[in-house]
UniProtKB/TrEMBL annotation:
Residues 95-139 form the Flagellar basal-body/hook protein C-terminal domain. The lineage of its organism: Bacteria, Pseudomonadati, Pseudomonadota, Gammaproteobacteria, Moraxellales. It is found in: Bacterial flagellum basal body. Keywords: Bacterial flagellum, Cell projection, Cilium, Flagellum. The keyword Transit peptide does not apply. PANTHER family: FLAGELLAR BASAL-BODY ROD PROTEIN FLGC, FLAGELLAR PROTEIN. Belongs to the flagella basal body rod proteins family. Residues 5-31 form the Flagellar basal body rod protein N-terminal domain. This is Flagellar basal-body rod protein FlgC. The basal body constitutes a major portion of the flagellar organelle and consists of four rings (L,P,S, and M) mounted on a central rod. The rod consists of about 26 subunits of FlgG in the distal portion, and FlgB, FlgC and FlgF are thought to build up the proximal portion of the rod with about 6 subunits each. It comes from Paraperlucidibaca wandonensis.
Amino acid sequence: MSIFDIASSGMNAQMLRLNTTASNMANVDTVSTTAEGAYRARQPVFAAMMANANASAGTGINNATQVGVQVDGIETSQAEVPKRYLPGHPMADKDGYIFGSNVNAVEEMANMISASRAYQSNAEIFATAKTLMLRTLQLGQQ
């Protein structure tokens, strides 16, 4: 059943990636009165789960208790936020500057496409494994 665990953990990870990207895109044009208050892009950090996989290496037995993708956290971008001189803006500071988000819309769109395709691939793996298991069970009926 580990193929289902792997595929579902991959789907969950890509769903989090899609949600994070959507949040970044929603805040691409937000502004703030301070650099500290400006929205900063966020990216999830993933790690492979391979607990007990090394213990079964070479034995031909799959005793892995946890396999798949684990979310280690969400990192906030440390890139500089853009500063624009707009003295008439209601959110301008005393010097006339506003601070925008450091989200790059082009990078986020590419990230969204990549996450969507990865999610779709994991869903296809899940469906293919299910079909193969059902066909294997049907072999025993004949």
